[in-house]
Amino acid sequence: MNGELSEEEYQLLIEDNNQQLAKLMREQRELNEILTHQKNINFKELMAQLEQFIQAPKLDKEILHKLIERIEIKEDGSPRIFYRFSNSYISSIF
């Protein structure tokens, strides 16, 4: 052979590529559904914790540990607070 594909080989390659593409697109849809579901769960958990805090606005050790991962003090003495929110967008607000 001189490096050229026959029409039959070309069609087989196209069919194989189309099957792989369809499989990858299905997997992408499934992963997007899982991600959306997980975001909803995380948001609901955050809302439940905030609702608990709103109902009893006393900041005790338990609530503090639920909301804040750690606090670092910068060289200038100002605090840097790391929240436990799993969503980086929500964390950036605070």
Explained architecture:
- With 94 residues, this protein is mostly helical.
- The chain has one domain.
- The chain has helices at 7-55, 61-67, 88-93, and strands spanning 68-73, 79-83.
- A two-stranded antiparallel sheet has the order 1-2.
- Strand 1 and strand 2 form a beta hairpin.
- The termini are far apart.
Low-confidence runs (pLDDT<50, min 5 residues)?
none
Terminal Cα span: 66 Å
The percent range for strand residues is 5-15%
Please indicate the count of domains.
1
| Spatial strand arrangement across the major sheet | 1-2
Question: Any chance you could write out the topology, listing elements then pairs?
Answer:
Blueprint: H1 7-55, H2 61-67, E1 68-73, E2 79-83, H3 88-93
What would the keywords be for this entry?
94 residues; mainly alpha; 3 helices
In short:
This protein is mainly α.
